[in-house]
Design brief:
Helix content of chain B: 25-40%
Strand order of the largest sheet of chain B: 6-7-8-3-9-10
Oligomer: heterodimer
Distance between the termini of chain A: 27 Å
Largest sheet of chain A: 6 strands, mixed, barrel
Shape of chain B: globular
Largest interface: A-B, 22 and 25 residues
Strand content of chain B: 25-35%
Order of helices and strands of chain A: HHEEEHEEHEHEHEEEHEHEHHHHH
CATH architecture of chain B: 3-Layer(aba) Sandwich
Structural class of chain A: alpha+beta
Mean pLDDT of chain B: 90
Largest sheet of chain B: 6 strands, mixed
Chain lengths: 405, 262
Amino acid sequence: MKIFATLRIALRALRRNKLRTFLTMLGMVIGVGAVIAMVSVGNGAKAQVEAQIASLGQNVVLIFSGSTSRGGVRTGWGSAGTLTIEDAEAIRKEIPQVAAASPEVRGFNQVASGNDNWYTSVLGESEDYLDIRSWPLQEGAMFTDQDVRGATKVAVVGSTTARQLYGDSSPVGQIIRIKNAPFRIVGELSSKGLSVMGSDQDDVVIVPYTSSMKRLGGGTMLRSISAQAASEKELANVQQEVVDLLRQRHRIQPGRDDDFTVRTQQEIAEAATATSKVMTVLLAAIASVSLLVGGIGIMNIMLVSVTERTREIGIRMAVGAHGRDILMQFLIEAVTLSVIGGVIGIALGVGTSKALAAYMNWPTLTSPSSIVIAFIFSAAVGIFFGFYPARKASHLDPIDALRYE
Amino acid sequence: MESTVPGQSMTNIIQLEHIHKVYHTGEVDVHAVRDVSLNIGKGEFVAIMGSSGSGKSTMMNIVGCLDRPTEGRYLLDGVDVSHLHRDELATIRNQKIGFVFQGFNLLSRTSAIENIELPMLYNRQAITARQQRDRATQALQMVGLGERGDHHPNQLSGGQQQRVAIARALANQPALILADEPTGNLDTQTSIEIMGVFQKLNESGITIVMVTHELDIASYTRRNIIMRDGRVVSDQPVANRSFAEAELVKLRAAQKAVQLAP
């Protein structure tokens, strides 16, 4: 039998019971809509985390100093001071795939300008730090290697710190007092937003690490070293080489634990996105339940429809319909139900995720692939849940079907 | 699937040879048809009669290829259909048999013309939509309902619905029309009108086999077969054949006499 004729029969049958058709479709609409909306929310969250990871910089390898354990009390990473400036130099010079490295000293200090003061984290870094972090300046320039060598009292400030101390006026050229030592501001950083951990990355003052050690009394211990691999492919290599180099420099016997930790940006990204991935899967799974319920609704209504139209099936068989023709007729009816429901559901899901983004400021991301998958899935639901009723119809005995009251 | 049996007379549309049908219902076997052999030739108009339980409905189902005999051989238009698969039987029904039922069995909420097109929808040969419409319109004219193609069954009288059903039976130009109590749901006048349609079709060469339990309806046919307990007990040509046109004139006169009709 002709496929278009079958399609026309199916559409007519659906038009005959408009309310029933609408309610059955509603199950699919809600199911598909929920899946699309939930996956969008999950993907949005994932994309946000990924953006935060990207704000770490490009191809970054972070080397943390080991922890100390004194009388059973263990301190956090970076507290043991096992990393030295020489380590940083060695990493930069001896590992060819390392493009840049910056030793980091960190302190929390009061900073002041005029009558205003602020409490912020003061980072001691090398001149390469901003390149490693892919962190452009909004105004001014980064301090130079000469500043680092000479331990000059210069600083670049983050946008949050700048606003707290200088309001809307430009901080460049101003003097900022850190622990009462006057530093000249040479640059203002552009805004980077929240870190993976949720802290404000713009609430910062960056000075040469040498200045931090000498002028701010931070000592010579490094909290960490930020290094940059030449390319993404080299990340794992660089990690291994750093470990080997530092073990050798620190004279760690084979079998003993490292007194430092090396993490690549990839590892950090994987850890951070793992949560949002789980969330996406969980949301999609919950939404899929409603899709399943929608499918059962289709099966239910198709079974009712087959019973109601037993006589029609009998007539069709008597005039020469094969079992296959009847099967196709009811299958197409079920698939039409599910696909139209699916398409409306896609529209609803996209609309919902847009509304969530617009009115609740949730980051949502509707990917074309999720729409395609939802469409295929809704057709599959129609076939899966329509098959049993359709098969039941096609196996009816024409004599019994014709006699059915 | 189909095999023409050589040496069979092609003038016989229906050839039944020692047909048995046994239903296994629970513990008891019901022997509905017992050793029936009969031939029906091309252009015949036959009534199969009998009380309920006589096996005439079972016979009808077998002749109509809706059911298969338990034993025996059935040649329809020279083709042995006794052991065909249900889909093959469906194709045979589509090509060779037109059905007319007691309850009309039209698709509701579907126009008359589309009801008539239904068998063509399942025709394995390609028929264009245009051809379908033309053939359906032709069939509708043959049963005298040319103007009612757009009407739905619930907008038609019982007689008109049965005419649509007959037109549907004609759609694929079958070798045989099978009518199962076609006048069972109709009043006397309409019954005669329907028999008139059948007589007209028969005169144009179409073979008709009809099941009925009404003697007066059977008298419009040419040959009466009577069944009892699954056997053919009588098979005779109709002696005093009724003709629909004459009967209608008589009926109108009678109605006029009692002022039933103007």
